[in-house]
Specification:
The protein is an alpha+beta fold. The chain folds into 4 domains: about 5-10 and about 80-170, Alpha-Beta Plaits (2-Layer Sandwich), CATH 3.30.70.270; about 15-80, 3-Layer(aba) Sandwich (MutS, DNA mismatch repair protein, domain I); about 180-225, Orthogonal Bundle (DNA polymerase, domain 1), CATH 1.10.150; about 245-360, DNA polymerase, Y-family, little finger domain (Dna Ligase, domain 1). The protein has helices spanning about 15-20, 50, 60-65, 80-95, 120-135, 150-155, 170-175, 190-195, 200-205, 210-215, 220-225, 260-280, 310-320; strands at about 5-10, 30-35, 45, 70-75, 100-105, 105-110, 140-145, 165, 245-255, 280-290, 295-310, 330-345, 355-360. A hairpin with a 4-residue loop joins strand 10 and strand 11. Helix 4 (about 80-95) runs antiparallel to helix 5, helix 10 (about 210-215) packs across helix 11 (about 220-225) and helix 12 (about 260-280) packs antiparallel against helix 13. The protein is globular.
């Protein structure tokens, strides 16, 4: 695996950049794509001018406009974004057939066996950036590394319009000073657990042996031990890996009745289960998301002993998780249910009271 040459191509502010490209009058203005603040909307993408005010995706639009009253709000046009994505991915495919989408605006490319006339992965990365800039009038940041883990981190290192190359001999020194949150699959819960062990940076994580990590995190500890050393054997697949399936709703009026809140969670859980069954997927983890009226957001997760896609089971556990929140005492503006740690398979009937382990979030699940 040491000879692999992997690129991670990540478009810069994709939705907002497409809007600004197509309407030059927006250039230099703080632009966001998403719902209006008066409709309890949420930001889907923000231009770099908007980000200077601390505005980012998933932020409530009402909160964003308080930070920057001059924000330009644009309604998402996903058909246009998908068409643009197709054109960009066509460029990627001219360099290698091994292109794995991670989302509409990012992909992994394995160019190990496809260096062609360019001779190196770095030269390919430069050419991709030039092609995207000249043909699509957009910018893409590219990370080059010996595996997906390193390439992904590198692509975010010098945004926007950046190119960061990490050679195999540089991997450990490149990763060492970074916060552990930058590693694949490390979310808030794992970050907090590691902090309790005195681990803040990747260099700190390397000081823990694999036994200590597996005692704390189970099999995930083995992956952490590998990632801390820049080891990642995941191949670049021709199909996008699904990280999770979920749904959420932001309510026009806060919910404050317990029965209504629990009913909504059960409904959302049913939708998730139906989607799992349609895709012939099983979930090992169910997670609920609760956002209170003051925008405080919490998650609670449960990992099953056996993966399932059974609606009543997922709904029962989602409701049980809800009862471990303050939803009965605080008004709720958003609820969500997500199934993660997905595996392929036929439906499995799981007893409602099967043993499982609970955590504050469902980690890890798929790509970052």
């Amino acid at each position: 695996m040491a000879d692999r040459r992997i690129l991670h191509c990540d478009m810069d502010c994709f939705y907002a950049a497409v809007e600004v490209r197509d309407d030059p009058s927006l250039a230099g203005k703080p632009v966001v794509v998403g719902g209006r603040p008066e409709g309890r909307g949420v930001i889907a993408a923000a231009s770099y001018e908007a980000r200077r005010y601390g505005i980012h995706s998933a932020m409530a639009s009402a909160h964003a406009v308080r930070r920057c009253p001059d924000l330009v709000f644009l309604k998402p046009d996903f058909t246009r974004y998908r068409n643009e994505s197709i054109a960009i991915f066509a460029i990627f495919h001219e360099f290698t057939p091994l292109v794995q989408p991670a989302s509409l605006d990012e992909a992994y490319l394995d160019v190990s066996e496809h260096l062609g006339p360019w001779g190196s992965a770095t030269a390919i990365a430069r050419e991709i950036r030039r092609r995207v800039r000249e043909e699509r009038r957009l910018t893409v940041s590219v990370g080059v590394g010996p595996n997906r883990l390193v390439a992904k981190i590198a692509s975010d290192f010098d945004k926007p319009d950046g190119l960061t190359v990490v050679k195999p001999a540089q991997v450990e020194s490149f990763l060492a000073p970074l916060p552990v949150r930058r590693l694949h699959g490390v979310g808030p819960a794992t970050e907090q657990s590691l902090a309790e062990l005195g681990v803040v940076t990747v260099a700190d994580l390397r000081k823990l042996d694999v036994d200590a990590l597996t005692r704390r995190f189970g099999r995930w500890g083995e992956a952490l031990h590998q990632y801390a050393r820049g080891i990642d054997d995941r191949p670049v697949s021709l199909e996008r890996e699904r990280k999770s399936l979920g749904t959420e709703t932001t309510y026009a009026r806060d919910l404050d009745a317990v029965a209504a809140i629990e009913g909504e969670v059960a409904r959302l859980a049913g939708e998730v289960a139906e989607d799992l069954q349609k895709r012939r997927l099983l979930a090992r983890t169910v997670t609920i998301k609760v956002r209170y009226t003051d925008f405080t957001t919490i998650t609670r997760g449960h990992t099953f002993s056996v993966a399932c896609c059974d609606g009543p089971t997922i709904a029962w556990h989602a409701t049980a998780l809800l009862r471990k929140t303050d939803a009965a005492a605080r008004p709720v503006r958003l609820l969500g249910v997500t199934a993660s740690n997905l595996v392929e398979g036929a439906a499995v009937q799981l007893p409602l009271f099967s043993a499982g382990r609970e955590a504050s979030t469902a980690e890890p699940a798929g790509d970052p």
